Amino acid sequence: xxxxxxxxxxxxxxxxxxxxxxxxxxxxxxxxxxxxxxxxxxxxxxxxxxxxxxxxxxxxxxxxxxxxxxxxxxxxxxxxxxxxxxxxxxxxxxxxxxxxxxxxxxxxxxxxxxxxxxxxxxxxxxxxxxxxxxxxxxxxxxxxxxxxxxxxxxxxxxxxxxxxxxxxxxxxxxxxxxxxxxxxxxxxxxxxxxxxxxxxxxxxxxxxxxxxxxxxxxxxxxxxxxxxxxxxxxxxxxxxxxxxxxxxxxxxxxxxxxxxxxxxxxxxxxxxxxxxxxxxxxxxxxxxxxxxxxxxxxxxxxxxxxxxxxxxxxxxxxxxxxxxxxxxxxxxxxxxxxxxxxxxxxxxxxxxxxxxxxxxxxxxxxxxxxxxxxxxxxxxxxxxxxxxxxxxxxxxxxxxx
Length: 401
Ligand SMILES: Nc1nc2c(c(=O)[nH]1)N[C@H]1C(S)=C(S)[C@@H](COP(=O)(O)OP(=O)(O)OC[C@H]3O[C@@H](n4cnc5c(N)ncnc54)[C@H](O)[C@@H]3O)O[C@H]1N2
Ligand code: MOO
Description:
By secondary structure, the chain is of the alpha/beta class. It folds into 4 domains: about 5-20 and about 175-320, 3-Layer(aba) Sandwich (Molybdenum Cofactor Biosythetic Enzyme, Chain A), CATH 3.40.980.10; about 30-45 and about 140-170, no CATH class; about 50-135, Beta Complex (Molybdopterin biosynthesis moeA protein, domain 3); about 325-400, Beta-clip (Beta Barrel). It has helices spanning about 5-15, 60-65, 155-165, 200-210, 225-240, 260-265, 300-320, 370-375, and strands spanning about 20-25, 40, 50, 55-60, 70-75, 90-95, 105-110, 115, 120-125, 135, 145, 170, 175-180, 185, 200, 215-225, 245-250, 270-275, 275-280, 285-290, 290-295, 325-330, 345-355, 355-360, 380, 395-400. A 6-stranded mixed sheet has the order 7-4-6-5-9-8. Strand 20 (about 285-290) and strand 21 form a beta hairpin. Ligand LQZAQKY5 binds near residues 185 and 302. InterPro entries: MoaB/Mog-like_dom_sf, MoaB/Mog_dom, MoCF_biosynth_CS, MoeA-like, MoeA_C_domain_IV, MoeA_C_domain_IV_sf, MoeA_linker/N, MoeA_linker/N_sf. Catalyzes the insertion of molybdate into adenylated molybdopterin with the concomitant release of AMP.
């Protein structure tokens, strides 16, 4: 079977993927979520002409001349109001955020006055009429559209929604990802391993990628290489309402590689399988109704590279989030030989030299080597059939966490 080119695989992965339905969450849980309905202002802010400074509220005509003396006839703090009338030659002590008395339009800051006598201030500077006042509605008016649907909610958007009097927001649901590791040889971290056994590591990195893309994770543990055991975990994932089922291992051609058979038996229609990439060739993708199934290769580095390249964009799209791979232009730190028919993602050490990013491939690129992967800041991307590349030549690098 011909290997599927990377671009084709990515295109088919995202074909027809729409953001999930909405759910309402309290504001304090809405950070980094995607707005499903526009936010309009339920109130006007500020709801009154407010003082922007601590000082004295006065008529503009009284504030303009140095030496003017004004009688202080009252005081207003933020949260209270002044019900009296301020006449010409009068003022009211006022604090930042407090509503201006009716008819008054200017605040003289307290640094620009001196107390001339008890209850009398004298102006030391001129203040232009209208200064130091926030007019009602300068931020927003009731009914204004404040935040558009589809916006990723950051700190300012959350404070704005709160200020507009929304205690909760309608956001796109987080995709739920069920992760199933497969393999008789696998034992959870912390186990004593017997002959032929290794520690199951893939689910941890896959889960971290999923969370980074905004998903919730359900780790269903390890299925031994038996159809019934693997099918039982797939059914558990379906029953839990998973939007995406991710398996690791069992995707290749070995006699114990059951994943395709089991997923198909549970109702998956295969979309594509086996990609022209390295690592990650055995990657499998299909649909089980609305559920997307991603069969990741068992080799630990392949599972991580495929999570970065396939799982993250799929989850971001389901969650309505923008997503772009972080590609950088770098300088190659060592010669590389010509590439074969698979797009290569070469683990590389990154460093900055003379303000330029230098990417040096690790000598050992075996897709079982997690230590190399963890030390790599990026993956040099080598197109299929790329010519040899000499140290010092430019090369594209995909930054990884
Ligand atoms: N004859 C062929 N053999 C292989 C091919 C091929 O095309 N023809 N492809 C190779 C490639 S490339 C990869 S990648 C692996 C992937 O195969 P599977 O997806 O079936 O993975 P497994 O055989 O189950 O495991 C491979 C390797 O990874 C270890 N593993 C599996 N799961 C975990 C886990 N959760 N944590 C840590 N390590 C895990 C497993 O023990 C194996 O060592 O197939 C090649 N073979
Ligand atoms: O492509 Mo496999 O994923 O090399 O290790």
